[in-house]
Design a protein that fits this description.
The chain folds into three domains: 2-133, Immunoglobulin-like; 145-195, no CATH class; 227-314, no CATH class. Helix content is 23%, strand content 41%. It has six helices and eleven strands. The chain has helices spanning 2-17, 227-238, 243-257, 261-268, 274-285, 304-314; strands spanning 20-26, 32-36, 39-40, 48-54, 58-65, 72-78, 88-96, 102-111, 123-126, 136-169, 172-206. The protein has a five-stranded mixed beta sheet with strand order 8-7-1-4-9, with no helix packed on it. A hairpin with a 6-residue loop joins strand 5 and strand 6.
Length: 316
């Protein structure tokens, strides 16, 4: 019994100390900075960042692109298993939606023990709680100056000058021719030498990132609902006798929290009529945490025609 108690204590301690991992990558390799709860995680802009040592179930995240024209994305990221609340190795992708705007979407998740080692090109950082210096964007301006110098060439030195001197002394004239050598270069050719000087100046803009409107395929800042809270909300929907009342409550719960595809399927089961299930499924798609798994809701329908109507409505 003593050994059993010790084992339980060890397992409990391991569960408390278990921490989640978060990976965020850009589908089109656009460099970005990742902010979690107001603190930047990567010192240099990257296209793939993995943060380890996360001990909270969710974080308020911001993705800031190096290209200021792309703006910023605000998103609540859940880093635990939404059904068990256990630590997870979760991955989100930064991608463009159908309107060409950048969004952050859930990509994949698995228990920590099953997570493979990160790829060599992934930057791995321990969760940082110490604020870093403001993000700066640097632009290098290169100026090139060319200076030309003309140099003369000569083949020899010296020219000869002839001077005639006349002197009159006492009525007698004397004439004298004097040849004088003058040391003066004879320039026969010229050469132009060009010197190029390159100067590089770095202009740094600290901060200044503008926030743009982000068109999410799901509600902005939406995080999946924890299983315990979901079951409580599902019971509230089932407790109502009329479809309209069920629909009102179901939509309020979904819009305020976001649900997984599995949870949406369960919520559809609370309705008595096929039309109600279809109406809710069309509405809930815009608030699905893992919309890539939306095929799971098909089992909640009785008729194949309802699946076709759903796919037409959500553009699949």
């Amino acid at each position: 019994m003593k050994y059993l108690s010790t084992l339980l204590l060890i397992l409990f301690a391991l569960n408390i100390n278990a921490q989640s991992n978060l990976t965020v990558f850009a589908e089109d390799a656009t460099p970005f900075y990742l902010i979690l709860n107001g603190v930047r995680q990567n010192a240099e802009a990257q296209t793939n960042v993995k943060v380890t040592g996360l001990n909270q179930p969710g974080y308020k995240a911001k993705v800031i692109f190096v290209d200021e024209s792309l703006g910023e994305i605000d998103k609540n990221l859940t880093v635990v298993d939404v059904e068990t609340n256990q630590p997870y190795d979760v991955t989100y992708v930064v991608k463009k939606n159908k309107k060409g705007n950048y969004i952050v979407r859930f990509f994949t998740g698995m228990p920590i023990a099953q997570a493979p080692p990160p790829a060599p090109d992934v930057v791995v950082v321990q969760y940082n709680t110490v604020p870093m210096p403001p993000i700066g964007t640097s632009v290098q301006i290169t100026e090139t100056t060319t200076t030309s110098t003309t140099v003369g060439g000569s083949t020899g030195m010296g020219t000869q000058e002839n001077v005639n001197v006349g002197v009159n002394m006492g009525g007698v004239n004397f004439n004298m021719d004097v040849n004088i050598d003058v040391d003066e270069p004879i320039i026969e050719s010229t050469e132009t030498i060009s010197t190029t000087t390159t100067t590089t100046t770095t202009n740094t803009n600290m901060g200044g990132f503008g926030t743009v409107e982000v068109y999410e395929e799901v509600a902005t800042g939406c995080a999946p609902m924890f299983e315990g809270d979901f079951q409580e909300g599902l019971s509230a929907v089932k407790s109502k006798s009329f479809e309209d009342s069920k629909m009102e409550i179901a939509k309020q719960i979904t819009k305020g929290n976001c649900l997984t595809a599995k949870q949406i399927k369960q919520m559809m089961g609370a309705f008595d009529f096929e039309d109600s299930r279809l109406e809710y499924a069309i509405f809930a798609h815009g608030y699905c945490y893992d919309a890539n798994n939306y095929w799971q809701v098909h089992d909640a329908f009785t008729f194949e025609s309802s699946i076709e109507e759903l796919n037409d409505a959500i553009g699949r």
